[in-house]
Amino acid sequence: MTDSKKDYQKILASVQKPVIGEAGKTGTWSNFKPKIDLKKCIPAKSGKAACFNCWLYCPEAVVTRTIPPEIDLEYCKGCGICMEECPVNAITMEEVKPE
Amino acid sequence: MTQTKVANNEKNIKILTGNHAAAHAYMQARVGVVSAYPITPQSPVVEKISEFINEGKLKAQFLMVESEHSAAAACCAASATGSRVGTATSAHGLMLMYEMLPWAAGTRLPIVINLATRSCGAPWSIWDDHSDFIAARDVGWIQFMCEDNQEIYDTNFQAFKIAEDPRIYVPTIVAYDGYLLSHTLMPVQLENQEDIDAFLPPLKHHINLSDISQVKGVGPVTTPNIIIREEGTAPGYYEFRYALQKALENSIDIIKEVHDEYAAKFGRSYGNGLFKTYKTEDADTIIFAMGSVSAQARTVIEKLRAEGLKIGLVTLRLFRPFPVKYLRDFFKGKKNIVVFDRAIGYGYEGVLCYELKAALYGVQNPPFIKGFIVGLGGRDVKGEHIIQGVHRALELSEKGEITYETEFYGLKLDELDFLD
After folding, report:
1. Chain A residues closer than 8 Å to B107 by CB
2. How many angstroms separate the CA atoms of B101 and A50, rounded?
3. ipTM score of the complex?
4. In chain B, what are the domains?
5. Burial (Cβ within 10 Å: 0-12, 13-18, ≥19) of residue B396
6. A11 chain-B contacts, CB cut-off 8 A
7. B195-225, pLDDT tens digit by residue?
8. pTM exceeds cut of 0.80
9. How far is Cα B159 from Cα B153, in angstroms, rounded to an integer?
10. Which domains does chain A have, with CATH numbers?
C-alpha cells in the first residue's frame, strides 16, 4: 500500500490541456470519407483565398484554410457537413470498405 | 482568560442576526466572488453582501443568476480562477445546487456555503429542521453546524482557512438553524480587519483558469483506469476519489488546528473544535444533538441533574467528516446516550443516532443508545420533550430493551379531530 498520509495531497483536480488526438484516432470511426474534386473547388480552381466553407463548417477542425484545402483523414469522423456546405458540390463522400 | 493573548482589547460588539453575522464574516474574509439566488431564510445573507459591495466596503464580484444550480456552477467556475468564493442557501436551494456539490468536492474547490437550515417539501414549509443539511452529507464537503450567531461569524473564518488549506482543499458548509438563528438578533463580537487578515491570508489555489495562456479543461472525462502515456501518467477517477476521502479523513487534525489557532488569537473556542461538551465530566448519561436542539437541551440539564441524574450534553459541531475517533474516546465508559434528531434518514431513523451507533461499533461495554425525532418543519422543540426523551431512554436502558420503531416528541396527533 502507498503512504496515505502524503500521496493524496498530490492528486487534486483532473485537468486537461487541448492536444491533437486526446481521444485517439477518431478518423477510424467513420464509414465515409470526403474527397475534394480540385477541378470544382473554388480556391483550388481560382487560386484565391475564397469560399473555405468546408474549413468554416467542419465541426472537428480537420480542414485546412489553404489552397487547396486539405482534410486530415486521421481525425475526420466522416459526418459529411463539408459536402453539404460546399456551394459547388466539389466534395463527395466515399464509402470506406471494411478490411 | 488572563493567559490568553486576545487580539484586541477594544470591543466591537454589534447586535446581528445569524444571517448578518455570516455576511459580515464574508466581508471580512474578503470573498472575491459571491454568486447566489435568494431563498428563505437565507436571503438576508446575500442581500447584506450586495449592500456591502454597493457601499464599497467589500470589493467583490456579485453574480446575479437565474437559479441555485447556476449560482453553484458560477461559484465552481469562479473558484477555479483562483478566487475566494462564497454563497448561501437553504433547503430546496441546496437541493438545486446538489448536482454541483460533488463537482466542487471532486475538483477540490475551497468554496464555502452558508446554509440557513430549513425543512424540505412536501408539504411546503419555510421553517427549520436539519433535513437539508443532512442531504448534503455524501458529496465530499466538510460540514459544520453552529449554535449561536457568534459561532456563525467565527466558524466562517475557520471554514475558509480549513477549506483552503493546501494539505486538503475541500469545500465547506457552515450551517445554522433557519429563523432560530438566521433571523434572531444576538450580540456578536466583530474582530479587527487586520487581525482577520493575519489569521486568514489570501487563497493560494492549486488551480487557476484565469491564465488564458495555459487554457485547461477541468474535470474532463476521467477513465476507470489510470492514463499511461510517454509524456507521463494521470490518475483515473478512482484515484481522485480516493484522494478526496483521504483529504477528508486527514482534515480532522487540520480543523482542530485551525480552531485552536482561532481560539488562541481571538479568545473564543468551541469545545475541541469538533464537538462541545457541557457538564459531562461526572456524567454517565449524555444527550447528543446539534444546533438548536442542543441549545434547547442545555436549558434542561440543570433540571435533570436536580432529579439526581448524572447527565451532560455533547453538541456536535463537525458533522462531516464525522469525528469518529474523538467520539469513541469521549463516549468510552459512558452508560447511556440519548440522541435528539431534527432530521430523519427516512426509512431508518434519526440521522445523528445511526451515525453515532456506527461510530461506536466495537467499543468495549458499549453505551445504550436511544434516539428521538423532534422539531421537524419548525415545530417547537421544548425542554419537556428533552426531559421526556431522557426518561424514556433511561427506562429502556434499565430494562435493556432495544426498540426499532422511531419515536417522536412534539407530535400533536391527539389534537386532530378526525383521528380517534
Report:
1. 12-14
2. 49
3. 0.86
4. 13-207+245-266 (3.40.50.970), 275-415 (3.40.50.920)
5. middle
6. 235, 239-240, 242-243
7. 999 999 999 999 988 887 777 889 988 889 9
8. yes
9. 10
10. 34-99 (3.30.70.20)
